[in-house]
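Batch 3, record 17
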Amino acid sequence: MLDGALVRAPARLRAALGVVWLVGLFLAARLFWWQIVEMDTLTTRAGEQLKYHSPIPARRGDIVTADGTLLATDVFLYNVIATPKDLPDPEQVARKLAPILGQPYDALLAKLRAREANVVLAQDVPQTVSNAVQDLKKELKLSGGLGVEGALRRVYPANAFAAQVIGFVNLMREPAFGIEYKFDAELRGTEGAVTGISNALRDIVPSDVPTTKPAIDGARITLTLHSGIQRIAEAELASAVRAARATGGTIIVMEVKTGAILAMASYPAADLNAFRDPANKDKYGNPAISAQYEPGSVFKIITTACALEAGTVNANSVFDDWGPIIIGGREIKNHDNLKPGRVTLTDVLRMSLNVEAAKMSVGLGAGRFYECVRQFGFGAATRIELAGEAAGKVKSVGDGEWREVDLATNAFGQGIAVTPLQMITAVSAVANQGKLMRPYIVQEVRPAKGQARVTPIQPVRAVIRPETAQTLTKILADAIIAESNNKAVVPGYRIAGKTGTAQIPIVGMLDPEWTIASFVGYLPADDPRYAILVKIDKPQTSEWGSQVASPVFASVAKQLVSLVGLPPDSVRAASR
Amino acid sequence: MLNNPTRFDSSISSDSLFDLVRALVLLGGIVALLGLLYLTQSSQATMTGKRVVELQTRLERLQRENAQLEYEIAVLTAPDKMAERARRLGLRPATPQQMTYLVVKEYPVMPPQSSPLVQNVINPPSPAEPWEALWNELLARLGWRANGRIVEASP
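Prediction for the assembled complex:
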């Protein structure tokens, strides 16, 4: 019986064994399900729960001048935040925190006793203050209740300096205007990250070597602007606009042989750090490239260049100017209704005779005149590396807007719209032996990794022959010398240039009250290096470019030659 | 002896037992050693990981402080501030009339520069590749290479 019991278990035991087998099978099946079938899903979920991912923000690239002045950079700024209910001893915290934040004890204590869940104790404090707060937290053994939150912030150390060229980046890190907008992709950089295993508080657990993908900072952009020349331009412009009680103005300094912009200043300008101030809303656009205006008599340089190049006039030409003429049914007259009689080409430019300029364009004919004007770059954007450039406007025969009188008025800069940059670029072509250069303001884009990209000097085309350019330069320089009280004169240096006093078109007519006074010139006339454009909008002390803009040109030029160490003509002649 | 299979040969069985125990002790020792090695390596990795995190945090903090200092320097040396400070010190821009140029006969003439102002850009050195930086750091730690810190000599 005993042997039989050993051989055959009772039915209950067998049933129990069966249940154990079934449970075992069920567990094995579930195990197979979770371990094999659901393996990927569960691994991913577990990974997500344990994953530590902390982004490393990329610093936006710096913007600097050619001589290394920092104009735009990124810094970490912090907000100090308290959670009052988690602070065991607000008095002690306030006492220790007050000198760190530079705030009165009572004010700080009031904030720490506030009923709000979270209180901002200080905004935009630097790293040093943040470090001090962190140290205090450790000293007081606070696990919560006090903390700092940091974020990268774009800052502009020179405030309004070259503001319209730089543009700004708002709190959402979105760029607006200037280099910031145009080169956003290069400046932005690539975010990095630290990955590893996190604990329940989402802090990294040092269980293994964490994986770090470093952030790649944005490219550093070096401008062609020279901080000394830019400062001269800005200071002189602000002073001139205030003195003339004008509404604004622009000064551009260009290196004629390369097209490099050494200064680009417009007034009024605003602090780039104060972009949130509604009063500054309209001050960040760059009028030097976007403001289209009728250049007035400055444009006679272009008309004369075209006529000289075509051979319809030459340096020895003599003109009979007996006052008003009728072209296209409209009367064309000189300023102050001058009737100078027999004049030379130098006299035409010295006296700024509209009638003779009109005769020159008519002598060329519309086809040749407008072709030449477009060759100088008018009517098309210069493609400078700045956002918001305007193309200006040059009418064409048959475009529906052009009338016969336009051929005459365009010759002395009326009825044609240009930007200050187009104007100085065209005049620089005359200074540069007739070769038009593409203006540029970015010298170099240097990425954090990889090769720097240097902007090449780009000749656009030869607009006039070198002989024509030299002839015109001589005529322009002679015209300035011939005028005994010319306020553009720079002692020791022969300069070439021309004033402009342009009326401002308003709906259906020209504004009878306001003008735009300007001067465009270059020096030294025997070997031109620098071109300077001065434009003053709606001056009240005098309407004339010769009174308002010429002295500013002279002042900028005097400081420029001193700054760059350009010897006077006599010294350069002696050293040849 | 053959008639009683349950009885042991005490001399043989005690040797075998000793060998077995010895083998087990040895095996246990090896396992313990391997475990110790594993634990040491694991704790080393953890410590290194912790150190890396600390160093990264410190590096980040220093970089932020450096950026802050660069910004503060830039604020203090902004052109308008420099000009204002120069004015307060009694300095004035020189006018062309105040400048004297000397003509040196037969002085070798420099070739004209196309862009004298804008070519004076001092380019910062290109950052080293990560593996290169790591290699240099390793050499520096081993004392086979001076580390990258530059100490300026006192005047």
